[in-house]
């Protein structure tokens, strides 16, 4: 069943492509939440809704997912914001996922997007991020099928494309643009991964922050945009809050994104506290504070001013 979103837009959507916060798949966002997000200077949010394969291998929406997505469409429109809706598979589409060898799952991904393209045709403040962090190289062949199916229904819908290797910036070094207009190319920036994810898994080492490393990791994306003159939107970037010198790492990434004029959404707002920019470096303290330096750097960038910590 497809949920028909019961409202019409009464505001102009925010300029494309904007900057703001990744909301992941956290449920229950309210108007007060969106007003708080807008107060940071954000004009964009990103929400991921989850699909899982049933016993016959058909991707189905998790219970409540469509209602959540409709809620985000309504709230983002009400606050004059752009919304990026992303399909997230559970389990994650790693290189060994059954998704890549299942025609039924792949065809049903296309079918789900066709349904939503038709149901949400009137809502122009929304872009479709057609698959979150697809790991397998087969995604580069499947993605054009998804895009053609959406464009057959909605020729003007802006589509966000995350390349294979889970949208790693490295992949942009050997990539050519897709043969479509209206595509926004979206890396996710967590490199170097052992630094940004330290302490999440027992096996993670805890390397030090190296100034300049983040810029080096993003260079393939810079070169790709300069070569092909296409829009870039960093749909996720972040760093675990207890990583030493997190503020410096995030400030360096922000400097690159802002200097290149890219859209971005920080991971995350109102999800797990480990990623929360308003929480400090003490992993036992989950208090959110608007004075946390990493948050101030992000809020300053959203407002177009300089923050030095």
How would you describe the overall organization of this protein?
By secondary structure, this protein is α/β, with parallel strands linked by helices. The protein has one domain: TIM Barrel. The protein contains 8 helices and 10 strands. Helix 3 (103-119) runs parallel beside helix 4 (139-153) and helix 7 (246-260) packs parallel to helix 8 (293-303). The longest helix has 17 residues, at 103-119.
Task: Give me the secondary-structure topology.
Elements: E1 19-22, H1 31-39, E2 44-53, E3 59-61, H2 65-78, E4 82-89, H3 103-119, E5 126-129, H4 139-153, E6 159-161, E7 183-185, E8 188-189, H5 193-196, H6 213-228, E9 233-237, H7 246-260, E10 263-267, H8 293-303
Oligomer: single chain
Mean pLDDT rating: 91
Number-wise, the strands total: 10
CATH architecture annotation: Alpha-Beta Barrel
Query: How far apart lie the N and C ends?
Result: 49 Å
Helix-strand category? alpha/beta
The helix/strand order is EHEEHEHEHEEEHHEHEH
CATH topology: TIM Barrel
Number of domains: 1
CATH superfamily: Glycosidases
The DSSP helix count reads: 8
Note poorly predicted spans: 1-16
Report the portion of residues in β strands: 15-25%
Major sheet attributes: 10 strands, mixed
């Amino acid at each position: 069943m497809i949920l028909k979103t019961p409202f019409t837009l009464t505001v102009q959507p925010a300029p494309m492509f904007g900057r703001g916060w990744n909301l992941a798949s956290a449920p229950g966002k309210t108007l007060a939440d969106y007003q708080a997000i807008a107060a940071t200077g954000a004009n964009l949010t990103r929400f991921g809704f989850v699909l899982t394969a049933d016993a016959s291998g058909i991707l189905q929406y998790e219970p409540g997912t469509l209602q959540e997505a409709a809620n985000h469409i309504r709230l983002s429109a009400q606050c004059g914001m752009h919304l990026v809706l992303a399909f997230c598979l559970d389990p994650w589409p790693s290189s060994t996922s059954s998704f890549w060898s299942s025609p039924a799952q792949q065809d049903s991904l296309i079918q789900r997007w066709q349904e939503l393209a038709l149901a949400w045709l009137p809502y122009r403040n929304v872009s479709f991020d057609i698959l979150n962090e697809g790991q397998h190289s087969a995604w580069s062949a499947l993605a054009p099928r998804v895009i053609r199916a959406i464009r057959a229904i909605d020729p003007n819908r802006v589509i966000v494309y995350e390349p294979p290797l889970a949208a790693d910036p490295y992949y942009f070094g050997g990539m050519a643009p897709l043969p479509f207009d209206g595509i926004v190319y979206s890396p996710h920036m967590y490199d170097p991964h052992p630094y940004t994810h330290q302490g999440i898994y027992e096996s993670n080492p805890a390397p030090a922050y190296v100034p300049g490393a983040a810029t080096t990791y993003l260079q393939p994306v810079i070169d790709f945009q300069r070569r092909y003159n296409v829009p870039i939107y960093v749909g996720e970037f972040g760093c675990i809050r207890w990583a030493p010198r997190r503020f410096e790492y995030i400030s360096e990434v922000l400097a690159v994104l802002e200097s290149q004029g890219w859209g971005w959404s920080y991971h995350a707002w109102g999800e797990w506290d480990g990623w929360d920019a308003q929480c400090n470096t003490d992993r036992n303290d989950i208090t959110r504070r608007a004075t946390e330096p990493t948050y101030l750097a992000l809020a300053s960038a959203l407002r177009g001013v300089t923050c030095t910590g």
